[in-house]
Amino acid sequence: MNPTLLSARALHHSYGHTPALRGVDLDIAQGEIVAVTGPSGCGKSTLLHCLAGLIRPDSGQVRYRDTRLDDRSEAARSRLRRTEFGVLFQFGQLVAELPGAENVALPLLLAGASRRSAAAAARSWLERLGVAAAADRLPGEMSGGEQQRCALARALVTDPAVVFADEPTGALDSLAGEKVLTELVRIARERGTAVVLVTHDSQVAAYAGREIALRDGAADPLTLPVGGAA
Amino acid sequence: MSTPHVLLGLLSAGPLHGYDLKRAHDQRLPRARPLAYGQVYATLARLARDGLVTATGTDRAAGPDRTAYAVSDAGRAALDAWLGEIEPPAPHVASAMLAKVVIALLAADTARARDYLARQRAAHAARLRDLTAVKTAPDATLGDLVAADHAILHLDADLRWMQNTAGRVADLHTEVHR
Ligand SMILES: Nc1ncnc2c1ncn2[C@@H]1O[C@H](COP(=O)(O)OP(=O)(O)OP(=O)(O)O)[C@@H](O)[C@H]1O
Ligand SMILES: [Mg+2]
């Protein structure tokens, strides 16, 4: 088993009076692909946002390598996210005004790469993901599957240690979804990237090596763990 | 499923020995029950007797396991006819699973039924993961994807059924004991 990369202890989080997480513990190893599953509203996205440092939990700890994320400022978390994390959401969330290649290059430019090297890296990722033709098109001129592969390229372009994916195929038909997930898993295995894959879909969860099932903001006592031992 | 027709179909790509035919079967139809070698040889013998396959190859004298079989014209016609028939759309969703849930509620309680569903779900999910790994293997062919897909989609249907049923266990308990 690889060393632990990301861990959470006793995470609690509420939105006003609505509790979303009520004491979640987990450990994710380097290079591990973990699915977070459970019914709508059980707290999957909230957990992902806490792990990725997008929100600070009300209480509990999130640790990435030797760094506590939960007590860091937004600026510090954002710096870490830029270089160490990649994120992929249900609806690509590409910048509508920028063509594919510029969308993909964005994280590299924010991290201080030169324009030329960022553009070259962006194009090579788009090519690897089979959407080279999207490089010069605006998101509005791409199909949903193309947008999502473009968003995946953007999530991978900095060679992050962890990719956080929240229902990344929720808006795609099953063959388009298969392309995105297959590439994500293959690339993660090649590079030793950890993946946190949030989904309510068993078929999507089956791409992960292990499943963490939530129910009402905590580990589901009725769902036996799948995977992880091997 | 008709094993003779399936074997005819597998042979239509080219002659195979019984051993390779069994392996082709288990690889192409991962969700079917694996065939026993004896069943393969017995079926081949029957197909040969009926003129649907013919023994070929140079080592016929070496015994049945060294004999390769090829589809005859009559065999091709039989295969074509079978391919033209539709299969009865019977729901094969595990009447066994349904039976277990109902018996658990009758003979025990909701906890027993939920426990059964949780264990069944874990087994299905583990199998689903193995089949999905076939698809993400670096050397996966389109044939691998197509074969795995069928099993994946059926397992997923079973999993959805289990999820719904788990959500209905309490009401089902009331109904079963009414
Ligand atoms: N921004 C918000 N403001 C108020 N309540 C929220 C907010 N985001 C989530 N919630 C609530 O917190 C709980 C957990 O939501 P979360 O989005 O984490 O669930 P989820 O498992 O991702 O659901 P889904 O599968 O529908 O995406 C829900 O009850 C939800 O209504
Ligand atoms: Mg969500």
UniProtKB/TrEMBL annotation, chain A:
Pfam families: ABC_tran
CDD domains given in the database record: ABC_MJ0796_LolCDE_FtsE (cd03255)
One GO molecular-function entry: ATP hydrolysis activity
Source domain of life: Bacteria
Entry keyword Nucleotide-binding: yes
Identification of the protein by name: ABC transporter ATP-binding protein
Keywords: ATP-binding, Nucleotide-binding, Transport
Keyword Cell membrane included in the entry's annotation: no
GO CC, any one term: plasma membrane
Domain named ABC transporter: residues: 6-230
Automatic annotation (TrEMBL), chain B:
Superkingdom per UniProt: Bacteria
Domain Transcription regulator PadR C-terminal span(s) in chain numbering: 104-165
Any Pfam family matching the protein: PadR
Residue span, Transcription regulator PadR N-terminal domain: 7-80
PANTHER family in alphabetical order: NEGATIVE TRANSCRIPTION REGULATOR PADR, TRANSCRIPTIONAL REGULATOR YQJI
Descriptive protein name: PadR family transcriptional regulator
Organism: Pilimelia terevasa
